Amino acid sequence: MQKKYLMTPGPTPVPSEVLLAQARPMIHHRTPDFSAMLMECVDGLKYVFQTANDVLILACSGTGAMESSFANLFCAGDTVIVARNGKFGDRMVSLAKVYGLVVVDLTYEWTEVVRPADIAKALEEHPDARGVVVVQSETSTGVLNDVEAIGAIVKDFDDCVFIVDSITGIGAVPCLTDEWHLDVVMTGSQKGLMLPPGLAAVTVSPKAWRAYERSTLPKFYFDWMRYKKNLDKQTTPFTPAVSLVVGLTEALRLMREETIEGIISRHSRLAEATRKGCEALGMKLFAPPEGRGSAVTPVWVPEGVDGKKIVSIMKNKYGVTIAGGQDDYVGRIFRVGHLGYFGDFDIITTLAALEMTLAELGYDFERGAGIKAAEAVFMGE
Question: Minimal CA–CA distance to 44: which of 245, 197, 236?
């Protein structure tokens, strides 16, 4: 028998309390019992998102939440500014084009952060822009973009909404939706919310609702107003993912118990230990120092080592599943996830498996150095 460790940035491990909650007998979604859980989830999500704005729960992946933001906020031919420095920023550009939007494409290298000054310049050059789109925490690169600074810029443009993909940010890094003037923020259930895939949540500010009122793009299942009106009646417009909502209720209770401040602090500690551990093994981190998030740590594969074999040996021989690179970075980087239900010893175990794998692949390093460096972080040394 081999014990498995899931160390990817999504799906992430699910706490036993949540798994057991989802194993309860099915209930009907048009009942007071389900309504009570649904409203508890909405309240809990407002706490996690740090918002008083509307929060809508969708039965889809994070990409569904992305698509819903375009369908609900714009008209064909509208101009949107999309800053991208990773795979999911690329996806935002693709979605915008599918809906007939004119994209002002701010493209960066995957190793760079989005520069708020570039957003300000783009808005100056395109005063008719109806939206700015940024990924806060890029899953593909581990880069953390400064959405607080960008929000301070976009807030002064009354007809321009700020859309933030925080799918791997929520529950890992600070994201003060209201204080930072973020009009639309989204996440997925299989990330910091510690659930299986299948749910997404999106916040909608008053400014975003004004954009909705002028939007003429077609929408039905993802029509936000349907969800808002049904939430006023404590229900959903369509059949929800009942068991996932039951699990979400329990997950949010766990998050409230830890507190959002405690959650952010824990993720910061896990990320720092992972980074220090990998650096102690002589490896270089992928994300730049000024933009490193706490959800996932991408690392350059050492020269002469097969990056694909690192991932496969760790999974098949040692039972530790990490993620490889994406697109142009396949085989060139690997990514260690620590978003959601993770603790100190998950990092220690992962670094131990990484060390054994690297030794097997002939990489020269001091055995135990990665584990020692991580322990020092956890012990406050």
Answer: 245
